[in-house]
Specification:
The protein is an alpha+beta fold. It contains 2 helices and 6 strands; from the N terminus they run βββαβαββ. The chain has a 6-stranded mixed sheet with strand order 1-2-3-6-4-5, covered by helices on one side. α1 runs parallel beside α2.
Length: 127
Amino acid sequence: MSTVKIISTEKAPAAIGPYVQGKVINGFLFASGQIPLDPVTGKLVEGDITQQARQALKNVQALVEEAGSSLERVVKTTCFLKNIDDFAAFNTVYAEFFRENPPARSCVGKIDLPKGALCEIEIIAAV
């Protein structure tokens, strides 16, 4: 039987519902979607898609690092955008975090997100 390790860090926002930040099983981290919440205040970061995407990706990075991995080992992301017209601006920020050999990715637009966020990002990473 595989052991499941719960990932929890104060460097990413606490869960706002009945879920955990992430779980590691069989060498992979499955992280809950990260919206652009400031982990200290628990409040949504104000600003446009670039500011919100940057915070969501910082939250993702904190979870990956807490699991003992790095962004280079993220194998799949699923990105949700409130406004699909933000796709190009979102990609610019996303590319700052995933510079070389980016992960496989899906992106869905025109979706309502928790707390009125402009984006949400979930990942699977090798640890």
